[in-house]
Amino acid sequence: MAVLGMLLAALGAWTAIKLGPSGEVHFSATSKATGAVAVGPDVLNSLNVPVRIRATRGDGGAVWLATGPSDDARAVLATSAVSTVSGVHYPAGTLDLRSSGAGALPGIGTSDVWRLRTRGSGPTELVVDQGTGPETAVVTSGDATALTNVTMTLTWHERSWFFKALSVAVIGAIIAAFALGDLSHSRHTSRRTDGVRSRRSRVSA
Amino acid sequence: MNRMVRAIALSIAGIVSCTSVAGCGAAQAALGIQEPPKANTASAPLTVDQAERILSRELAAAQQSEATTGAAAAAALRTAYTGEGLRAARARVKLAAVRRAGTDSPLLAPQQPRLLAVSRGFGYPRVMVAQTVPSGGLFPILHLLTSPDAATPYRISASATMLPSSTIKPFDPLGQGSPLTDGTELAVTPSVLLNVYAARMAFPTKAVANPPFAADSFSAQVRAKAAAVAKAVVTQSSFSQVHKVVPDSVYAVRQANGDALVFGVIVRTDSFAVKSGQAVNTAAGKEFVLLSGKKLSTKSASITTLEFVVFAVPRSTGQATLVAASEQVVAGSGS
């Protein structure tokens, strides 16, 4: 029990430090392939908290970022070359990218399927709220050049995670303290009992 | 006793911590991890804000197309309209120079746009129904905006001015969306309604027994005008008028009470067969001259007009009622 308590305390403390008081967790990956980058509902809608998507081109060019219903996004992207974010790794903070398609991306900016959209000349961010999924976020070039060498960062921010991690650390510490106290008390009692037994055995002899 | 209390406390703490931290479901719930949601097919594919932004964009482009000229007007037309709506708008812009005074497009007047309905579900085509109320006492205009697929934005495909005293019954809430219907549950299917209505307006007149629609001022005017034209040209040419429903132009949007609002486009062809030895001077018809390039016809002439009609169709029994109609000459030819 003492070991379990110490493990919980260590895990909770480490997670709380890693998250920080703001409760933020970041995942990043750089797509070197030419073409759009998509974040499907398996990742985008996997947590019931808003997700901030940040896209930065290696060449500093403009970025177009949007999110819309997954079926529509799939239809719009069709067979174009797309790198899809297929998984996240915690605590490594990395994203898996899976490439598919080969064609050039049509002008998807004129479509009306995008619930949220933004365009920036440098690093560009879009905060996607939950509740209207399943949705897919799409990142593509905001200018005439093709999108390549783009770094994607997904950030989830939930302040309560920090306090939950802190709670786990505190509970673990309490369990460890109780268990160690109990262990120490048991040893003390056992030593005293052994002493009494040996004295009695000497008297009776 | 003290030891027993500690043992119980430890057991409870252990159980709580194990179930809340190691227990997978509880940990997922604590972090807010969820399965990706399924698409709600009983909702509109657009948020209300999104739909209103699209409507504003389209109406702004429509106004711009009529207020500007040249390449800017052409680009605005392509942004605002599609299909027969685009054909009519292009003709309206082209004929603006010969338009009679006081007949400017109502789109030029300041409007109060109102989004009435958004189609339900994530299939295609998707539609929006909107109403604009021009200032200056003009009648409201109903607009149908359509998007045929995910890659193609919404465009105005039909606009029709509401008839005096006509009203539109409410649709389901915008967030919920209003389903498109093939009309099998209605008193008359939309395609049958439009085809019978088109046939009824032909000249020479064709009798239609038990029409599924009530008499209306628009068709009465069209037929009266056809009769007047036939009478005016009787010595020089014969005259006939044919109305045909434009394929794939019919959309029926269900209303909250189960009725439906049905949009359709009918193409009207006025045909003149000039009698032998006659020559018809068409110079007075400025629209015809501009469209056909002919001031004199010796054999035949034809004028093509698009008629945009909107019917209120009851759910189970009763006649459909025409609630809005507009027409636009789009082509002319002569020989």
Q: How many alpha or pi helices of chain A?
A: 4
The greatest interface here is: A-B, 43 and 33 residues
- Strand order, main sheet of chain A: write it out: 6-5-2-9-4-7
Write the H/E string of chain A, N to C. HEEHEEHEEEEEEH
The poorly predicted ranges of chain B are: none
Distance between the termini of chain B: 116 Å
| Shape, per Cα inertia axes of chain B | globular
Number of strands of chain B: 11
Shape of chain A: rod-shaped
Model regions low in confidence, pLDDT < 50 over at least 5 residues of chain A? none
Q: How would you describe this protein?
A:
The complex is a heterodimer of chains A (205) and B (335). By secondary structure, chain A is an alpha+beta fold. Chain A has two domains: 1-21 and 159-205; 24-157, no CATH class. In chain A, 37% of the residues lie in helices and 32% in strands. Chain A is built from four helices and ten strands; from the N terminus they run αββαββαββββββα. In chain A, the strands form two sheets. A six-stranded mixed beta sheet of chain A has the order 6-5-2-9-4-7. A four-stranded antiparallel beta sheet of chain A has the order 1-10-3-8. In chain A, α1 (2-19) packs antiparallel against α4 (159-204). The two termini of chain A are 41 Å apart. The mean pLDDT of chain A is 87. Chain B has one domain (48-334). The model of chain B has no long low-confidence stretch (mean pLDDT 88). Helices cover 32% and strands 26% of the residues of chain B. Chain B has helices at residues 2-22, 24-31, 48-67, 70-80, 83-94, 190-200, 217-232, 286-292, and strands spanning 114-118, 126-132, 141-147, 155-161, 237-245, 251-254, 260-274, 280-281, 296-297, 300-313, 321-334. The longest helix of chain B has 21 residues, at 2-22. Chain B contains eight helices and eleven strands. Chain B is globular. Chain B is an alpha+beta fold. In chain B, α1 packs across α2 (24-31) and α3 (48-67) runs antiparallel to α4 (70-80). In chain B, strands 5, 6, 7, 10 and 11 form a five-stranded antiparallel beta sheet that branches. A four-stranded antiparallel beta sheet of chain B has the order 1-2-3-4. In chain B, strands 8-9 form a two-stranded antiparallel sheet. Chains A and B meet through α1, α2, α3 and α4 of A and α1 of B.
